[in-house]
Design a protein that fits this description.
The complex is a heterodimer of chains A (189) and B (202). With 189 residues, chain A is mainly alpha-helical. Chain A has 3 domains: 49 residues, no CATH class; 42 residues; 47 residues, no CATH class. Chain A has 7 helices and 2 strands; from the N terminus they run ααααααβαβ. Chain A starts with a helix and ends with a strand. Chain B is an all-alpha fold. Classes of the chains: A mainly alpha (189), B mainly alpha (202). Chains A and B meet through helix 3 and helix 4 of A and helix 2, helix 3, helix 5, helix 8 and helix 10 of B.
C-alpha cells in the first residue's frame, strides 16, 4: 500500500472499515508513523481553537439584529403592498363592478319567465328551470293583449260556426307553448 | 453509557428544535428567537473560523439565520435542524467569501484569551521558549494564518471536523458530498497545515 493511501485511511473514523493492510503499512513505514504523530499534534493544536468563545453580548446582539431584520422585512413587504395597491385597486374595482353587473343581468335573465313556460302556470314551474332556485313570487302571468282580447270576447253565436274565422285548441298545450298568435286557424269561407 | 447519554441528549435537542421549528413555521417569531439562542454559538464559531473576521462573522451569522427563517417552509425535517442550519451557514459564508474575495487581516485582538489559559497550551509554548506570551501570540497568529491559507472547501472541512468536532458522515450531509470526499479534503488540508505549522508540531 502506498503511503498516501495509508495516511488517508488513517483518518477514517470507523476503524472497522479500515483494511488490515493499513495497520501493516504503519507498522512497517517509519515515515508514516512520524506523519501520524505530527497529525495527532496538529489535531490537538486545532482543537484549542474551540476555546475561542464569542463575545457574551453576541447572543443578545444577534437576537436583536435578527428580530429587527425580520420586522424590517415584514414592513418592507407591507410597504411594497401599499405601493402596489393604488395601482391594482382601480382595475380590481372595475373588474368587480363588471362582474356584479354581469351577475345581475344574468340573474335577471334567468329569473324572467321563459317564453315556453305555460301561460298562467304557477311560478313554481318556472323555478324548476333554474335548478330549484325559487325566485321571489312574480306578478301573475298576463296574456298578450291580443290573446286577452280573444279570450274575453263573448261566445260567437251559432250562426258564426262556419264563418271565416274560427279558433281551435285555445288553451291547449300547443297554444300555450307559443304566444298570442298560436293555433289560430283560418277556416274556409 | 456516555454514548447513550449523548444520544439521548441529542434526541431531546432535536425534538425540542423540531417543536420550535413547527411553531416558527406558523409565524411564531419568539420560537425562532429561541432557535437563534440555541444555535448561534456554534454557527457563529463555524462562520468565524471560516472567515477569520469577527464583524463579518456576525453579519454572515445574521444573514444565515434570516435565510433559514425564510426557508423554514421548505424544511422537511428529514435532517436535524442543526445540520440544516450548518449547511445554510456554510453556503452563506462561502457566498460571502466569493463576493468579498478578500482575506481578512487577523489582528491579535481577534484571538480569544481562553486558549492561552489552557495548561496544555501553556506547556506546549513555554517548552519552546521562556517568552511565553510572545510564543502564544505567535502560535495563535500562525494558526489563524494557516487556516486562512486553505481553500474554502478544505477550510470548511477542517473547521467542521477538527474545531467543531462534527463526524465525517454529518459533514458529508452538510456539504452535499460523499464521506470519501470529506476524508480526502481533510487529508490534503492536514498535509498543508502540517507543513505550515511544522515548527509547532515537531
Amino acid at each position: 500500500m502506498k503511503c498516501r493511501r495509508a495516511r488517508m485511511w488513517a483518518l477514517s473514523e470507523n476503524r472497522a472499515e479500515r483494511p488490515a493492510s493499513v495497520d501493516r503499512h504503519f507498522a512497517e513505514c517509519e515515515a508514516c508513523r512520524a506523519w501520524l504523530e505530527r497529525d495527532e499534534r496538529l489535531v490537538r493544536l486545532l482543537a484549542w481553537k474551540r476555546h475561542e468563545q464569542p463575545s457574551p453580548y453576541l447572543e443578545t446582539r444577534l437576537s436583536a439584529r435578527v428580530r429587527e431584520a425580520l420586522a424590517a422585512e415584514r414592513d418592507a413587504r407591507g410597504a411594497r403592498w401599499a405601493e402596489w395597491f393604488p395601482t391594482l385597486a382601480a382595475p380590481i374595482a372595475r373588474f368587480g363592478l363588471a362582474a356584479i353587473f354581469i351577475g345581475m343581468v344574468t340573474f335577471q335573465f334567468l329569473a324572467e319567465p321563459s317564453s315556453t313556460a305555460p301561460v298562467g302556470a304557477p311560478a313554481e314551474r318556472a323555478a324548476v328551470s333554474f335548478g330549484g332556485f325559487a325566485p321571489a313570487p312574480a306578478a301573475p302571468y298576463r296574456l298578450h293583449p291580443e290573446a286577452e282580447r280573444i279570450a274575453i270576447a263573448p261566445p260567437l253565436p251559432a250562426w258564426t260556426e262556419h264563418s271565416s274565422l274560427s279558433i281551435t285548441n285555445f288553451g291547449s298545450p300547443e297554444f300555450s307553448g307559443g304566444g298570442f298568435y298560436r293555433r289560430v286557424s283560418y277556416g274556409e269561407p | 453509557m456516555t454514548d447513550e447519554r449523548a444520544h439521548a441528549q441529542a434526541a431531546e435537542t432535536a425534538g425540542e428544535d423540531a417543536r420550535l421549528v413547527e411553531r416558527a413555521r406558523q409565524g411564531d417569531v419568539a420560537a425562532f428567537d429561541d432557535l437563534v439562542r440555541r444555535h448561534h454559538g456554534r454557527i457563529y464559531a463555524l462562520v468565524y473560523h471560516m472567515l477569520g473576521h469577527r464583524e463579518d462573522a456576525e453579519d454572515v451569522t445574521q444573514a444565515a439565520f434570516l435565510r433559514a427563517y425564510r426557508a423554514l417552509p421548505h424544511f422537511r425535517g428529514a435532517a436535524a435542524f442543526s445540520s440544516w442550519m450548518y449547511r445554510i451557514a456554510v453556503n452563506t459564508a462561502l457566498n460571502h467569501i466569493k463576493q468579498r474575495r478578500r482575506r481578512a487581516a487577523l489582528s491579535l485582538d481577534d484571538l480569544a484569551p481562553a486558549a492561552a489559559l489552557d495548561p496544555a497550551f501553556r506547556e506546549m509554548v513555554t517548552r519552546r521558549s521562556p517568552d511565553r506570551d510572545a510564543q502564544v501570540s505567535e502560535l495563535q497568529r500562525k494558526l489563524n494564518e494557516a487556516l486562512q491559507s486553505l481553500s474554502e472547501k478544505h477550510r470548511t472541512v477542517v473547521v467542521l471536523h477538527d474545531i467543531q468536532g462534527i463526524p465525517h458522515d454529518e459533514i458529508a450531509r452538510i456539504m452535499g458530498c460523499s464521506e470519501g470526499t470529506v476524508r480526502s479534503r481533510l487529508f490534503y488540508a492536514r498535509q498543508l497545515l502540517q507543513s505550515l505549522l511544522s515548527e509547532f508540531i515537531r
